[in-house]
Amino acid sequence: MSQGEPLNRLQPGQAGRALVVDDDPVCRRFCADVLSAHGWRTHQARTADEALRRLGAALPDLVLLDCRLPDPEARQRLIRQCAAASRDRPMILAMSADPPGTDAANPSREPVPGHFLRKPFAAGDLLAAVGTAITGHRTSGSVTPRGDNPFPKREPDAPAPAPYENPSAVFVERFRRELPDDLDRLDQALATRDWLLARHTLHRLRGAAAISGQGAIAEDCRRLHLCLKQAGPTPGWGALYTALLEDGAVVRAAASPVRRRE
């Protein structure tokens, strides 16, 4: 799609340029990884000011915006600049762990045009939200503000995203290569009792595992995530963490070259 092509020509299933704006590096990387795996050209911004600079350089087709960025005034300037881009304005997908319409989800109390995605979410939730945003934008030429939450939080007994039957070999290799770092990040979060970082790490790992066809690891991440609450883990989380490490060790062993005996 060319730089000046109107966004209402973006069809469902068609990828474009996406800007992920979130001060949480784990969530930001997770969103970028999922979209990149489906053909999107992604850029990341940690602050609203950084996102404004990126908008000045190249206008994206989609902005994934965390509603609780540290600087609410800069966030509103970012929203207004997106809205001022006329026909080529980006679609906004607002993200928050709090229900829409609450002061916690939107501290500035100013309207956020676009669609809403409730955190935490898995890869399938993100892709469904993007698809819905594209459909609404293509139909109306703009994104209609939503007062409700079209993507509610998953029920505790919801199954993990179905693993891809024919995952890309490139993505599988990338998953195996990055798995040790992801597990180390999770171990550090658990050791320091940073439950928020642990949950975000599990969501990213769960989505990457599902896309890579690693159903056991995706299910381990889902079950362990349910045990990690704001105030701390519930009983039984240790056994689930051990199961995740064991399944991860199997994947890592399968990726290791076999040494020939002399």
UniProtKB/TrEMBL annotation:
BP-aspect Gene Ontology terms: phosphorelay signal transduction system
Gene Ontology MF terms: protein kinase activity
Matches recorded under PROSITE patterns: HPT (PS50894), RESPONSE_REGULATORY (PS50110)
Domain of life: Bacteria
Residues in the signal sequence: none
Any Pfam family hit: Hpt
Modified residues (4-aspartylphosphate): 66
Phosphohistidine modified-residue sites: 203
InterPro entries registered for this protein in UniProt: Bact_response_regulator, CheY-like_superfamily, HPT_dom_sf, Sig_transdc_His_kin_Hpt_dom, Sig_transdc_resp-reg_receiver
Domain HPt: 164-262
Location of the Response regulatory domain: 17-134
Keywords tagged on the record: Phosphoprotein, Two-component regulatory system
Bilayer-crossing regions: none
Keyword Phosphoprotein set for record: yes
Region spans: Disordered: 137-165
PANTHER family per record: CHEY SUBFAMILY, STRESS RESPONSE REGULATOR PROTEIN 1
Protein name, entry field: Hpt domain-containing protein
Organism: Elongatibacter sediminis
